[in-house]
Amino acid sequence: MDSTVEKVDFTHMNEGEHAIGPQRGLNYETKLLWEYERTDDPAVDFEEPSSFRNRTGLDERKELGLPQVKEPTVVRHFVRLSTKNYGIDNGFFPLGSCTMKHNPRLNEKMARLAGFAHVHPEQPVETVQGALELMYDLQHTLGELTGLPAVSLAPAAGAHGELAGMMVIKRAHELAGNTHKTVVLCPDSAHGTNPATAVTCGYTVRTIDTKGTGRLTVEAFKEALGDGKDVAGMMVTNPNTCGLFETEILEIANMLHEAGGYFYCDGANFNALVGNIRPGDFGVDVMHLNLHKTFSTPHGGGGPGSGPICVTSDLAQFLPVPHVKKTQHGTYDLERERDHSLGRMKGFHGQFGMHVRALTYILSHGADGLKQASQDAVLSANYIMAKLKNHYHVPFEGPCMHECLLTDKKQKEQGVSTLDIAKGLVEYGIHPMTVYFPLTVQGAMLIEPTETEPKQEVDRFIAIMTRFAKQTEIGDTEIFHDYPLSTPRRRLDEVKAARQPKLKYSAAEQDE
Amino acid sequence: MADVKYTKDHEVVKIDGDIVSIGISEYAQDALGDLVFVELPDVGRTLDKKEDFAVVESVKTAAEVYTPVAGEVVEVNEALNDNLDLIKESIESGWIAKIKVNDADALAELMDEAAYKDYLSSL
Q1: Residue A498 sits at the chain B interface (C-beta within 8 Å)
Q2: The complex's ipTM?
Q3: Can you name the CATH fold of B3-122?
Q4: Of residues A419, A436, A495, nearest to B61 (C-beta)
Q5: pLDDT greater than 60 at residue A29
Q6: Most B CBs within 10 Å, among A436, A491, A492, A496, to test the B interface
Q7: What does A373-394 look like in DSSP terms, one character per residue?
C-alpha cells in the first residue's frame, strides 16, 4: 500500500484495515475522490493508442495521479456531495442583499421545452424565431419595469452587468470629449463590486459619507460632488444596503445630472421595487438587473446568473451587441453591429436559459403579481424587524424595505457576537443572514426573508433569534462559542485558513 | 517621549519630530476582528493628506488605512508580513508605515488619548 492509500485512514476509527468512520446516521463522511483506493478495473477503459508518437518535444508523464475508481463509487461520491449542499430548496436562506427566493418549477418546465433547450446559437435566425421573440419580449418587459427603455441581455451576471453599465457611461463621456471627468461617487455602504467596477473602468472613487444616517443626504452628496467638474457618475443601490429607501434620491439625481454626471443604479435590491416604482423615474440613467435574484432564476451554485442592463434611450447607442430587434415584417433578427456599441461582451447571446426562466416568472406573475411580490417582500422584512427590535439593536429606525438590518450591539456586551449568532443559526438548520455587511454598521446582520418564505418558517426564525437574545441576556453564552454542534464539521478556524491557505490538495498534509 | 495621537478613522499616530508612525487603534482592531493580511505601501511613495496607503484585511472585512498628514513613506514594517499579531501589541511594534511629514501643522488636528476616548464614547 502506498501512502495515498493509507490516507483512507482519515477518520481515525479503524477496525482491522477498514476505516469505519464517525458516520452519524445517514450523514456521510465524504472523502475526496483521491482518497479512494485506486482500482485496476475502472469504469471506463481507454485503449492505449498503438501508433502514438509524441511530437511535442515534452516529456510524457507516465502517472497523472488521477483518481481511478468504479462507476458506482463515482456516482455515490457525487450524490453524497450533492446532499451536503444547503440551498433555498432545503430551508430558510435569509441572506441579505442576495434575494434567495423560491425558483418556481414552472420556470424549469419552460426552460426544458425542446424549442428553447435544444436550439443552437449558430442556427439561422429563421429557425429560432420563437427564442428570439422571447428575448425581444424580455428586453421590452425589463425596459417597462425599470423605465429605462433600451436593454441589453448580454451580460452574464450582476458584476458583468455593472461593468457593461459603467463602460456605457465611460463611452458616453469619451464621445462627448469629457476627459476631465475621472471620478465616480459611491456611498460608503455600497456593495464592494461598485467601487471595484469604477476602478476597473479607470475611474477614481470618491466616497459619500452615510455613517450615522444610513441614507444618502443631499448635504453629504454635495460635499462629495464638490464643483462636480471631475464627476463622471454616481453608483448607488436603491434601496441601499441598509435596507432603506433613498428618500432624497430625486434631488441628488438632479444635482448629479446638472453637474454632467450619469446615475448608475445597482439593481441588486430591485426586488423591493418591481412593479411599484421605476428607477428611470427617480433619475437613473443606467441599471443592471440580477435575473437570478429579482426574477427567480437559480442562484449561487444553482445555475448561471444573468445581468441585463437597462439604459435611457440616449445611451442605447452604446449597448453591447448582439441585440434582438423586430423587423418591419414582424419577424425577429439579431442586430450584430451598432455604431458606438461597446461590442460583444459575452459569447453568443447571453444566458439564454435564464432569459426563458425570467420571462416565465414575469408573465406568470403579471403586473399585479410582481407588484404584490415586492410588497410582500417588504412586509416580510418589516415583520421580522418589528418582532426582533426589542431584542436586537436596530441601527436605523424602520420601516425598512425588503431587508432589515440588526446588530449585535446588545449581545456583544455579554460576549456574543454576530458570528456566534450566525453559527447558532447553522445549528438550527437555517442559513445565516449576511453578516458584517454593510461595512458602515458594526456587527451588522442583514436579513432578507423574501416574499416566498412561508410565515411559519419566518416565525420559527424569529423564535430562534429571540431565544438567542434571551439566552444571552441571562448569561447563558458559553454554548454560542461552540456552535455549530451537529454539522459534519464544527467551527472552522477562519483566521488560520486565511493566513495559511492550502490551495492544493496534498495527501501528506491531511493529518496536520 | 514620543507623542501619540489618534484620528477619527481610528489610526494611531506616533509623532517623532517630522517622522510619524501610523498604526491602527485597539478600537479598530476590535471592530475588524482577527487580522489575516496587511498590504504595505511602497517606500518612497508620496501621500496626500487623508490618502489611503495600506489595507488591513480581517476575516470579516478589509479596511483602508489613511494618513492624516501629507508626506512621504520612508519605512514600512516588514515584520508584519511574518507576524500580524504585532499590530495588537503596541504602536512601537505594530506600526504599519513611517511617514516623513510635509506639513506639521496638520498634526495639530489630531486627538490626544483623552479626546479620542471621549470621541469613542460618543460613537
Answers
A1: yes
A2: 0.78
A3: OB fold (Dihydrolipoamide Acetyltransferase, E2P) (2.40.50)
A4: A436
A5: yes
A6: A436
A7: HHHHHHHHHHHHHHHHTTTSB-
